[in-house]
Amino acid sequence: MEKKIINALSHLLYIPHIHFPGKIKVYLILSFMLAGQLFFNAVCAQNADSKLIFGMQNQTLEYGLNEVGRLTKFRVAFALPQVNKYTNITIEKKSRTLKETLNLLLENTNLTFVFKDKSILVIERTRTKQESNNGKYFIFGSVTDLDSDPLPGVSIRVKGNNKGTITDVNGKYALEIEKEDIVVLSYIGFNPREIQPQNGGLFNVVLSPNSIALSEVSVVSTGYQSLPKERATGAFGIVTAKDLKQTPTVNIMERLEGTVPGVNFDVRNNTITIRGKNSFNNTDSNHPLIVVDGFPTDDKTLTDQVNGVATGGAVLSRINPEDIESITILKDAAASSIWGAKAANGVIVIETKKGKKGTPTVNFSTSLSVSAPADLNKLDRMNSAQYIALEKELKDKGFITDPNTYSSWMSFNQNKPVSSALEWMFKVDRGTATAAEATTALDALSKVNNYDQIKKYLLQNAVSQQYNLSLSGGGPNNTYYISSNYTKDVPVFRSNSGDNYFLTVNLGNSFLNNRVNLKTGINYNYSKSVSNSAAINALGTSSLGLRPYDLLVDANGSTIKRSLVFTDAVASNFLNEGYLPWTYSAVDELNYSNSISKENRLHLTADLNVKLTDWANVSVSGSLLKTNGTTNILDELNSYNTRNFINTGTSINASTNKLVYGVPYGGQLITNYNDGNDYSLREQLNINKSWDDKISLNFLAGSEIRESTGTTSQQTRYGYDEDTNISKSYDPSGSYMSVYGWTQSLSYNDSYVNKSIMRFLSYYSNASVGFMNNKYIVSGSARFDDYTMAGYSRSKRAKPLWSSGVKWNMKSEDFLKSASWLNALDLRGSVGTSGSIPSAASNIAVMTISGNNSLTNETYGSIITPADGKVSWELTTSFNFGVEWAMFNNRLKGTFDFYSKNTKDIMYLLPVNSTYGWSSLLRNGGTMSGHGIDLGISGSVLKTHGFEWNSAFNLSCNTNKVTDSRFTEPGMTTLVGGSYPVVGLPLDYVYAYRWAGLDKTGQSQIYDSKGNIISSTTNTTLTSKDLKYMGRTTPPFFGGFTNSVQYKDFSLSAQITYAMGHVFRRPSVNSNNYPQYSGTYSGVIGTSKDLANRWQNPGDEATTNVPGLEYINSNSILRYQYSDLLTESASNIRLRQVALNYFVPAKVLSKTMFKSVSAGISVRNLGLLWVKNKEGIDPDYVNTKNYSNLPPARNYYFTLNVSF
Amino acid sequence: MYLTSCRGYVEVDQPGVRTLKYTSDFQYILNNINTFEYAYTLPLLSSDDIDINSTAILNNLTDDNKQVYTWADYFYTSSQTDVNWTNLYNQIYDCNTITDKVLSSQGGTDAEKKGIYAEALMQRAYAYHTLMNMYSPIYQESTADVSLGVPLLLTPDLYASLKRPTARTVYNQIISDIREALPNLPVTPTNVIHPGQTAAYALLARTYLYMQKYDSAGINAQKALDRQNTMLDLRTLTTGTLPKRLKDPEIILSKVASFYTTLPLSSNLINLFSTTDLRYSLYTKDGGSLYPKFTGRAYYRNKWIGEDINVGPSVPEMMLIKAESLVRKGQYNDGIQVLNDLRKMRFNTADYTDLSAQSASEALKIVIEERRRELMGRGIRWFDQRRLGTETGLVDIVQRVVSGVTYTLAPMSNRYTFPISAKVTDLNPEIEQNPR
Q1: Does residue B263 fall inside a structural domain?
Q2: In chain B, what residues touch A864 (CB-CB under 8 Å)?
């Protein structure tokens, strides 16, 4: 009953049907808002001459026609674009015949009407004559779902060209077609349908929902405009909300991995590379531009990894993945050059979800993931016995000496302590223990394995939770999308976490009969992360790292505390003197020294679009992004950092024998503040006009300004008490006596307030012209960018950039029209330029001012960039050729792109004769070229009743090469280091020494180019010719392969990614974890398992390749580390995810309030399916020194999706 | 249309980063002690003040430092940087930028601009004076017109020729720069980081000394002493109360040198000290207490106060130049008297006795010995070894043994001139290498 009332009411008041029991209030309010000026009377009318009472005041034609339809029970069909032109119609309310009423309504229009069956068809006057004689028909009707509820916004298109319409709010449509035309109806979430009307007239279509089928993407968004895909001449990659939903991870990068050919989403390093590199600079210059809802961001990545590049840390997304409607990746110049100076590395355009006219939909989704800590036994680590053996050898060979022997002048023993194993060995030397006692103790230590304790006390199950709730819908003049999201990510390391909250409100309003459209977006994000490095440090190799036999907790369950700065005896002496405990325990530190970051991001966008004519409109839009964040690093009084700091600053007064505290007593609080303000303002003219379907023009031109400002500052508080929030003042220049007996001063820790400002000014234009019903399309774009850059003259600062493209819709040609197996075939080509802004070179000397010098108290500065009259932009020219096809009834689809790029004027830190005062300067040094292919194939492999198997495969090939002949081959050590560009080689080349085994002293030997064996003690001038080329570090071939099988309401999918043809250096003994020269060795010894295989006695060279300690020298280590022996293929195939989803069938749901319900389980990180190197090492996670870089552990996700 | 039509929109000053525009900007550059206080490292290791008798320390030396220590054919490989050369020429670039632009800068008075201009000239002269003593063959008046100086850059031009002019050209430039700067330098600079008039005379004294123009050296040393003659009275000090450089009354201009490990002083230097010499106890330390250990003593004055070694001109150095000049003029008793004035501050009264000489040549040897004691461990000795080699009998042949190989350095050897690093000569072959 209730539902009926709402339906009646909404019909009465002309708003969409609402299936939303119990929420009348909302809709009444909505209804009253919309119903202000409405009055009418109605009687039933059955034919053209039946009478009805009708009248309206200042209403639109659309309204009038709909009213007539409602009053007469006739279906009134019309095409919105034609009818929309007519507004402000007033008709006196009185009784007339239906015919009279319609004549009156259409009086001053070029429209007329015809009766057909039970329908009234409103058409252009000229059409009536053409209707029969040139094969054109008019079709109309309504589109509904299985429940006969109308579907508004259904795309209705003539196959093979761009002609089409969408259904109105009542699901009605009208469209003119030609006799042979096939009409495709598509709607997100429903199976598309094709009809071939043959005749004009009424065609009511019912669409069946298919929540599994991938939705058809019909538009690509460049950030400045949305183009029908058919008109795009550039290379675009598109990821839809549906695709993103396939992977339920917190990290959006993981959702994107392997989905788009040509784009490398490197989760491990948190970088995105589109079609390879265009610049020699490794850090900044190769990032794509990220655009959200039309406006560029300064973000270089899509996610923040809280613990740096550690795969085990918490992850914070910058954008709610559930809010993303589509991600369009602009790959070639025709696609991206509209973004000009920042587009050389491609552009990622993110559109967030907007409301759709129609019934409100509430969607709730949640996911939970759990993974156990990765298997510590997979660590490439020595066991305790091996580690002790290494320590013994180091001691015997004199690399480590007894810290107890110290000079008398020192007030106390300042030598660092040694490990417990070494301590036993030295005890024997000192005579404080017998050899037998030591042997027993060492044997006991050898049996210790601390993995269980690490797992128990420092690690935890990684758990992530995501909750998303959204509400969307819209009336005739408005749309809304409101969502909120909460995500919590808890990584394997204890005391670490990330929390993320999102709120998004996207509204659309139209005024003055759709002449004015206002879109507003509010996006708020609050994130909080806690990081604590105690667990990470314990697993690393710094002085805080654990040796294989170092336990965390003793037999009684209390934490083991170790002294790190001095020997234990010295540390306990200090404790007796009244100093704070000078010992460290990783377990205790989990409670202290947290770094807590909080960030607020508020992004507001608004776009006001005013229709000038039906083919032209102007828009004014703006964006405001405000961010502010604080990071608090609190070292409590009990934290090791603070205890160490205070103890170091404490001395003993010789006369009173009391402690003198040199630094404020209490905790330390360092607060970092950052503030960002970013606004953009844009005005744009859009023209969309066609002439007789022969020529259509799509044109836009605009200008844009943008300002980005930022402030960062830091404040350090000493003597901080976290209960009272009180800190102590201090004299930064005053000096105090340290424990070591020399004076120190605290000095200023806080840099000055750092401010930045950048402004951008751009003019841009883009046009595409379609000929012969879009059979041929030509496009072009141009952009001019100017920006804030100190030291540049206007002419050097800004450059115009351009692109052009063509497209040929071959299927429309007569010779292919008959090929029924081929559904579409498009060829495209494009050429254009895009740029990269040089950031650090200048035509005028540029300086920084660095605040006051702590010694002289004078403000000082330095020249950071000298005046160099010859610097300019980096410029990339690219060429793209692409084919897109669909065949066998659209069951096999594909795209293929070939591209090549040439970049010139690449900024490079070129060596400069230091006599000029600079050792190296950024100059427009380099040129490089690159080329590659992107291939994507998707198809329905099998399709029978109730069963469907879909496959998608993509392949990316990319290679690059330095072409500037000035980059000649450098010396051997530089070449093997691999960071210097070399002409003719890709940027990421790998060279290696030719390994020739160990000599009889256990040191490396290599072959020179002539095959002579060179010993490590020979400093013969080896040249680059003596090295061997091994390949590249980034994969020249990579991609993804996804299979999904649907059976009835179940779907099962598997995602595979692969990378081929690259190499990596297998970690082993290297210059960081092994002594390089005989003498005193200090610091924590590496724990790499290869250290245990080292050469120890003559003869070992027959069985091992790891250099021995006795005759060690740095050549030996480096030549081993960079040898071809350790350079291996990194090719691998990886099973990313297997997911099983269940969709509750529609017929079950029809009796409930739910529109759709689905649940799923996914397993991720299933490991390598195949790897080429024979050791089976995962090449993506080779840095096994550190636990944080272990391959991620298997991860289980449970997801639930409900909408109603 | 709104303001996008204006390209001036993007031309805003960025905080903290800007082109040199205001007069104060140029002063900020000169205030940068990281740039301008740098002196050198090579002479610390090459001079006969040092004799590394410890294998542990030798093993600690990097390959290039071993090469320096043994006065090898070359010090650096083509990929290594000679920071001495690089840092000094970086000072010169900054000075050239200042002399090029400061006079037309905004926001400063004429006097301020001229003062900054003069300071830059002084700093440039100092850098060239150091470079000449390291990379130009030992100066001799007779060969000054053919002997090669160092590349002489006087404008911030990144594309200028780097051909080495004659030694005389460079020295003429140094002297004329100092003289041009003098009238605009402050009588009392804010601190010893900045050169004042005293520093200018002191640098002139030094320059003439190394040109072996001892009269002019003495005259300028006296002018420096007329303006600053404050001494540290070591009798009143302990290692803990030695003043830091900004408070040290002896320093005329602060220039620092540092080396990453503490180096043993040679026994022939240590033997010049009596144990009652306060410089022995306050300026040196027993190697047995250092890490790595060695037998003998190390220069430790700077370490006591936690600073780098100060090698800039000082009051005692000016006294020594004055004394040497007097002695060389034949007024050897006057010269020795200057030394005695100095030495009174270096001994407890009970331990002090006057020095005396019977002849000019004996007095000269005494002056040189006193120079060694007073200026030990700072690399200044290397410059002295060079100039004194032009006279017979004033410097000995130096021998060093590394890994069983003996290296010998005879007076006036080509090895008294440092090689220019290959990285520099490779990039600009017009820079002629020093003969070995």
Answers
A1: no
A2: 17
